[in-house]
Amino acid sequence: MFTLIFKAIWLFMPSYTPNNFAVITGGGKPIDFGRDFIDGRRILGDGKTFRGFAGGFAGGMLTGILQYHVEMILGFHFFSSLDFYQALSLFTLLSAGSLLGDMVGSFIKRRLGFERGKKAPLLDQLDFLVFSIILASFHESFYVLYTWQVILVGIVITPLLHRITNFIAYLLRLKDVPW
Ligand code: CTP
Ligand code: MG
Questions:
Q1: Closest-lying ligand to the alpha carbon of 117?
Q2: Which whole number is the average pLDDT over 53-61?
Q3: Nearest-atom index, ligand 1, CA of 166
Q4: In DSSP terms, which residues pair with 36 in a beta bridge?
Q5: Which listed residue, of 33, 53, 88, 118, carries a Cα 20 to 30 Å from 80's Cα?
Q6: What burial class does residue 161 get, using C-beta atoms within 10 Å of its C-beta: 0-12 exposed, 13-18 middle, 19+ buried?
């Protein structure tokens, strides 16, 4: 069980870190250019910016590449069971999926009338993971690494991990609210 939990956290790391990097790099022009949707509310809101997206994507890629090398050094092989370029395409899908899911989550939140930054339990905690999984499922090696057990454990433990990391970001004053 422990190894399964470790494996799930490890394999979803490039899905987790983009949102943390987005918090650090975010700001500037919002992706929706400040525009409203037909319901009169913002399309995505000021919390989704180009800089956050770019920084988040770079952060996810960096995380995966770092993990790949750590595996090589320590001699265990999840990502590094793939050749480097295969791994890069997997990190791309995981990182982009994570940021896309986060945007879809914000889109849904705005449609439900939640102001930017308002807490939406489960939606906030799983939107990025679900889209990460959907995009990564197009990767040729997805099913070899992400068994149904890994996916299940990932979905169950992520809301918990999400709460812990956001609370740390709040304590470090990187986020205004502890969620
Ligand atoms: N961020 C960003 N661009 C992104 C994603 C995140 O700039 N694509 C930054 C923003 O500064 C945002 C912070 O990361 O405020 C936290 O992200 P998140 O919690 O997803 O956004 P919220 O501000 O809570 O907005 P929402 O209600 O839409 O989730
Ligand atoms: Mg939020």
A1: 1
A2: 98
A3: 19
A4: 42
A5: 53
A6: middle
**Cα-based torsion angle of the residue sequence 82, 75, 98, 48 in order, rounded to the nearest 10 degrees:** -120
Place of tokens 């494996």: 7
Q: Is the CB of 61 under 6 A from ligand 1?
A: no
CB 79 within 8 A of CB 90: yes
Which residue's CA is minimally distant from atom 21 of ligand 1?
A: 47
- Name beta bridge partners: 30: 49
In this prediction, residue 25 has a pLDDT band, given cuts at 50, 70 and 90, of very high
Range 137-147 average pLDDT: 97
pLDDT in tens, 85-102: 999 999 999 999 999 999
Q: What pTM was estimated for this model as a whole? A: 0.93
133, 150 contact by CB (below 8 A): no
CA 53, chain centre distance (Å): 11
**pLDDT recorded at residue 164:** 86
